[in-house]
# Entry
Amino acid sequence: MAVGTESQRHSSRPTALGVRFLLLCGLSLTLLIIDQRENHLDTARRALSATVYPLRVIVDAPIAFWRWIDETTTERKELLKESSRLKTERLLTDARLQRYAALEAENARLRAMLDATTRVRDQIRVAEILSVSPNPFRHSIIIDKGTRHDVYDGQTIVDANGVVGQIIQTGLMSSQALLISDPDHALPVEVNRTGLRTIAMGTGEFDRLDLPFLANNADIREGDLLVTSGLGGAFPAGYPVAVVDKVTFIPEESFAQVSARPAAALNQIREIMLVWSTRANTESEIVDE
Amino acid sequence: MSRDRSSRPIPILLSIVVALMLAMAPMPDWAAPYRPDWVVLTIIFWSMNLPQKYSVGYAWLVGIVLDVSYGTLLGQHALALSLIVYLTVKFHLQLRLYPVSQMALTLIPMLAIYKFILFWINGVIGIQTPLSAYWGPVITGALIWPLVNLVLQTVPYRTRAH
# Structure
C-alpha cells in the first residue's frame, strides 16, 4: 500500500471506507428501486417527513412573522376601508349565491325528474403553502396539512379562481402537491361553452397550459373557459381551470396549437383550498341502486 | 488526528441543519436555478476536515433527509452525496493542502458529478429536465465556497483539550 505511517495507525481505514461506500451504494440503489416500483416506503417517508417538518416551520417563520407584523401594524383607517370593501363584496357574493341556491334547487328537481342522483356539495378546507419546489422544472409545493387532517393522495387543490393541482404525497403534518403547470401533469377538461372534451397539459411555465389534442376543425376560440370535466375520476367536475388565450390552426398538421392561461395565479398564491370531493359517494349511490 | 476524535458534534449538526434550511428557503423565481447546494458544500467541508468521524455513512443519512424534504426518490440524493463524500475522504489529505481558490476549482467537477447522478436517476425514472438546468448550482457552489469555508471555520467544533 502506498499510504504512509499515518494510516497504518488506522490500518483498516482505507478498505473499510471503500467497503462502506459500496454497501451504501447498494442500499441506495435498493431503496431507489423499491421506492420507484412500489409504495412500501411510504410509511418510512411519512415518519421522516415528520422530522423535517419543524425545519420547514422554522424556514417559514420569518415570512410568517413579517406578515404578522404587516397585519398588526396596518392603520385603522385602512382596516376600516378594507372592512367596508369586504362587506360590499360579501353582499355581492350573497346575491350571487341566492341565485345559485335557486339554480341548485332547480337542478336537484330536474335531476330528480331524470332519476339521476343529486350531486352533493364538495367540502373545502384552507391550507397554507410551506415551500415550493427548489427545482424550477418540477412545479410542486408543500402544504401544511397532512394525513392528520384527512388529506389523501390524488386530492384536488384549488384557489379562489381555479384548479391549482393535486396532492401527490401525504405526510403526517404536511403533503406535497403537483401543480397543473408541471410538464408531467395532464388533466381532463371541457370547454364550458360547447362541452368539447380534451386534455390540458402542463408546460413548465406558470402561465401557460397546452391543449395538444384538439383537431383543426375543433370549435374553440380565444376567451373560452376550460373547466374540469370530472372524467378520469381524479378531479371533481366543474371547477374552472384556464382561459384559452391563443388558437392557431395549422392546416397541414392534424392538431391545432392551442394554449391557455391558468385561472389560478400558480406562482403567487400563499393559501390554497383542499377539496374533499363527494364523487366517491355519488358513485356508491349509483352502485346501490 | 487526535483532534479529529475530540470534535464536538452539536455545532456541526447545527451547521448542517442551517444548510438544510437554506436549501428549503423560498427564493424568487429568477434566482431559484442558481441556488447553491448548501448541504453538499457543508458536508464536503466537514468530511474534508474531520474525515474519520464524518464519512460516507453520515453523508448517506443527510442524503435521505434531503430526499424526503425535496420529495425525490428515497436514495437519490443519498447515493450522490455519499459518492462525493467518498471522493472527499479518499483525497482529504490533498484537498486540505489546497488554497481556497484551488479548492473552489476542484469543487466544479465534484459538484458536476453530484448533479450528474441526480440527472441520471431522474432520466431513468422519466423526469425530463434539460442538462443546462444543472449548471447554475455547480458554478455558484464553486463561487460561494470561499465564503462557506470562512463561515464554517468559525464554527467552534474543536474541543479545548487537544
